[in-house]
């Protein structure tokens, strides 16, 4: 059931949800190009997108996308139409190339909203709308097989939000897991230590969601690095899953991946030896928790290379590696074969003998 009380196929009875698009005065964009970009996403996800002309606030909508510049207001819309705000200029801006990816996660939050969103420092308290430190909890239909804490990526930058993991959370809840998407402070605004502290706090809070059940950390990209780091520093983790993870921070820094993101987040490796020792899985001398590395072979070759190299480490027990066709975001797409293979391997590692009928056999090597 959709949050507005309909069956989720649109209020206008057209068979698709309707997305209204409001472009702020501070955004200079060609409307035809914008409309084509949004409609491709809408067609793929089953949304009717009104993006070529200013929308009619009196018309019903299932969500309203506000593309804003500095100082642009977010005007109110009709009841039950959540506002999806995407900056198009300024430090948190996204261009048209990234807009479908950003909006994909935001629309997933409308389609499959969390059962509850709680504050990280007090899980008994609902999180405020603008609260950065939070858990968005997606509950399974029955008793949970375990708890999965999802840590989003974005190369440790604040413009990328937890919405990137919403579809994966819904998929895991459908597989019987209590899935919690972590909102945490990023180092570009709060410093590296705040990021690490928030992820550790998220592990503790997630474990309390289903005491006694297995706790799995699932991180994507930069979140993969954070998941592996947290799993080795916070007790009680049954498995750490890194999806296209940035698992060698020295290589990321020296090769200037994503325009020097690692140096921007952690500082220079030569000046912050202890920080890199604690954070970079490639520097770990041993591991105490099973790892599952998942990597698309069509991703950035640097990420493919560092994950293969990490999986070959004898001193780390040759962590399990699942590879398959796919780019950097195939690993967080529930419809992709790579994610289905990873989910099957996850279930196998946490619950040996689990029924995985209907899933394909992953290409794997190494030990958990």
What does this structure look like?
The chain is of the alpha/beta class. It has two domains: 17-89, Rossmann fold (3-Layer(aba) Sandwich), CATH 3.40.50; 112-365, Alpha/Beta hydrolase fold, catalytic domain (Rossmann fold, 3-Layer(aba) Sandwich). Helix content is 30%, strand content 18%. It contains eleven helices and 13 strands. The chain has helices at residues 31-45, 99-111, 166-174, 187-190, 192-207, 222-231, 249-254, 261-266, 273-279, 301-311, 337-350; strands spanning 17-23, 47-50, 63-68, 83-87, 116-119, 134-138, 147-151, 178-183, 215-220, 239-243, 291-296, 320-324, 363-365. Strands 5-6-8-7-9-10-11-12-13 form a nine-stranded mixed beta sheet, with helices on both faces. Strands 2-1-3-4 form a four-stranded parallel beta sheet, with helices on one face. Helix 1 (31-45) packs across helix 2 (99-111) and helix 5 (192-207) packs across helix 6 (222-231). The protein starts with 16 loop residues before the first strand and ends with a strand. Residues 1-14 and 353-364 have low confidence and may be disordered.
Brief description of this entry?
The protein has 368 residues and is an alpha/beta fold.
The CATH class of the largest domain, by name, is Alpha Beta
Question: How many domains comprise the coordinates?
Answer: 2
* Total beta strand runs: 13
Oligomer: single chain
- CATH homologous superfamily caption of the largest domain: Alpha/Beta hydrolase fold, catalytic domain
Largest sheet strand order: 5-6-8-7-9-10-11-12-13
Structural class, by secondary structure, is: alpha/beta
Which percent range describes the beta-strand content?
15-25%
- Largest sheet features: 9 strands, mixed
- End-to-end Cα distance, whole Å, is 39 Å
